[in-house]
Amino acid sequence: MYKKIASIIQDALPHKLITNTEIEQLLERPKYQHLGDIAFPCFTLAKSFKKAPDIIAIEIGNNIKSDFIQEVHVVGGYINLFLNKLQVTRDVMAKIMIAHELYGQQEIQQKNIVIDFSSPNIAKPFSMGHLRSTVIGNALANIAEKNGYNVIRVNHLGDWGTQFGKLLVAFQLWGEKERVQQSPIEELLKLYVKFHDEAETNKSLNEEARSAFKALEDNDPQAMALWTWFKSASLQEFKQIYEQLHIQFDTYEGEAFYNEKMQSVVDELKKKQLLTESDGANVVELEDMPPCLITKQDGATLYATRDLAAAFYRQAQYEPSQVFYVVGNEQTLHFKQVFQVISKMGYPWSGNLKHVPFGMMLKDGKKMSTRKGRVILLKDVLKEAVETASRNIEEKNPTLNNKQNVADQVGIGAVIFNDLKNFRLNDIEFSLPQMLNFEGETGPYVQYTHARIHSILEKAKYTSSNEVTVMELENSAWEVIKLLQQYPQVITDSFEQVDPSLIAKYVLQLARIFNKYYANTKILVEDEQLESRLQLCFAVATVLKDGLKLLGIKSPESM
Ligand code: ARG
């Protein structure tokens, strides 16, 4: 609609002073409905027009002619437009009835976007931070696809690094094979914690760990065998979580994948005279930030070295137009350093690399930590969410079909939505009762609205057709229509701003506005507008379902 309005305004200009896109960016939504549906502020035109904004507004306003515009009100430097409700309604409804869930789908771009997300560390529990990365990354991937991009979902597993030296030593000293087999992550974490406790008093342990990691980097078969086992056991647990969340990756190329690929980066850094020696270690000096450590005294590589190798590999492999790293904001410096190293090497594509940071998950205002004994296991959290959803169903709708499935979808949906409704940089509070509240700003509220519409359509034995029979609907429907018409814009905004919360807020609002309409309107009345109302219901359900799907949330048909 903004595109359409922009071209209508363009036609009203005396000559092409600004582009349609610029007009589109200037368009605003008036704060109050009685002021109009869309406003065009003329202030920035004053220079090129060499006239006062209110004069410009009158001149352009007088020129606006279109079926889509009912009325033009000029107020100061603003042109306030009232849309022709019937035209707009027909236009929006026709689009949805033809496209269904493809409504809002943007043109195919022939461009790749790599999204590096989730990326947990093996032999450690899947943390709340990794959950955030997982749901934000997955939503961004879906949103990028809806915006016409080809997405490569990469799980950059933390499967390499000095911590594995510690784990190897700990396992050799205190490990029991059977226990690790039974619950790998729990046992390995215990071993890791024990290592740290013991190393406080026994300093030689750290030395042993260093040489164990060296053995690993040198492909020592015994060390490799243990590492391979730890990795596959951890992956098995992680994959259960991904299955529960319905999340898939195109590759699990983690840190270890880059072992053979780092040397060429180090060589190139040397050749380009970017490496400096500092106490036997090699670093790249950077502007406005601490140097980036590339190799340690003993030659061991680092997290940053592997990220450099990964960036080069992905560039060669996918030629991505953008790479998103969905990682907590505590790693901001790390990514700044890596990106600057690549830029210093002379690669302009370093500008396509983007850290997408997010805040912390809090419980009772405190960080949910996997250390310090306050261990909160994600699988327990998800289990609890599903159980709570299950109890709600037993209470409200005990005869529901397929209860377990619905409880899964609602419980998991609640956890995901609670995360994504917030701007990602904000810290978020984890409270199950709050996120499962059917009345609040929650996933279940949106899911419930969708299911309710479904049951209305079912009662009416509605079958969707591509033919639009919409006529003038009640005033309360107009609010719904205007929101439906905004959906494609929300899709592009959420991609451009790398912000899934725009979609979450949108579906909440659509659900709320629909429920308001539903409270004021009898839908299932046999009159000549019945079909129009049913089509409106169908359109809302379609968009709610698609919006939730972009967020990675299922829409049960009854609940
Ligand atoms: N495994 C890391 C961690 O848990 C996150 C990896 C993020 N991706 C990357 N390319 N560095 O902190």
**Quaternary organization:** single chain
Radius of gyration: 28 Å
Unreliable runs, pLDDT <50, ≥5 residues?
A: none
Number of domains: 3
The CATH architecture of the largest domain is 3-Layer(aba) Sandwich
The number of helices is: 21
CATH fold title of the largest domain = Rossmann fold
Molecular shape: globular
The biggest beta sheet is recorded as: 4 strands, parallel
Spatial strand order of the main sheet: 5-4-9-10
Q: How many β-strand stretches?
A: 13
Describe the overall structure.
The protein is α/β, with parallel strands linked by helices and 559 residues long. It folds into three domains: 2-83, Arginyl tRNA synthetase N-terminal domain (Gyrase A, domain 2); 112-260 and 304-362, Rossmann fold; 390-551, Isoleucyl-tRNA Synthetase, Domain 1 (Orthogonal Bundle). It is built from 21 helices and 13 strands. It has helices at residues 2-12, 20-26, 46-49, 53-63, 85-99, 128-146, 162-174, 177-182, 184-201, 204-217, 221-245, 262-271, 303-318, 332-344, 378-396, 403-420, 432-435, 443-459, 475-496, 501-520, 530-551; strands at 38-41, 69-75, 78-83, 112-116, 150-154, 275-278, 281-284, 292-295, 322-326, 353-356, 361-363, 366-367, 428-429. A four-stranded parallel β-sheet has the order 5-4-9-10. Strands 1-3-2 form a three-stranded antiparallel β-sheet. It is globular. 40% of the residues are buried. The mean pLDDT is 93. The structure holds arginine (ARG). Arginine binds at residues 116, 119, 121, 156, 158, 307, 310, 325, 327.
